[in-house]
Amino acid sequence: MATKTVKVNNINCGHCTSTIERELAELDGVTSVKADIDSKTVTIEWDELILAWTRITDFLDEIGYPAA
User: From first to last of its 68 residues, what are the pLDDT tens digits of the chain?
Assistant: First the structure.
């Protein structure tokens, strides 16, 4: 398992955090997601054998929350 925290500057509300957490959790290989409004960060834990980090960052772009 791998864990990374990324800055996502356009997290502005609870809806943003819910959307990020729900959408990322649906990716195969993601085991946990925590988005934080105050720090504007997203911490993701995933299985690198199933999912590449670039797919996660590309997916964040796709859902409108690009990593800084």
Answer: 999 999 999 999 999 999 999 999 999 999 999 999 999 999 999 999 999 999 999 999 999 999 99
Give residue 20's domain range.
Answer: 2-62
Q: Per the structure, how many domains does the chain have?
A: 1
Report yes or no: 41 and 5 within 8 Å, Cβ to Cβ: yes
> Whole-model pTM above 0.90?
yes
The residue type found at 7 is K
- Angstrom CA distances, 17 to 1, 12, 24, 32, 50, stand at 22, 8, 11, 13, 24
Q: Phi and psi (nearest 5°) for 66?
A: -65, 145
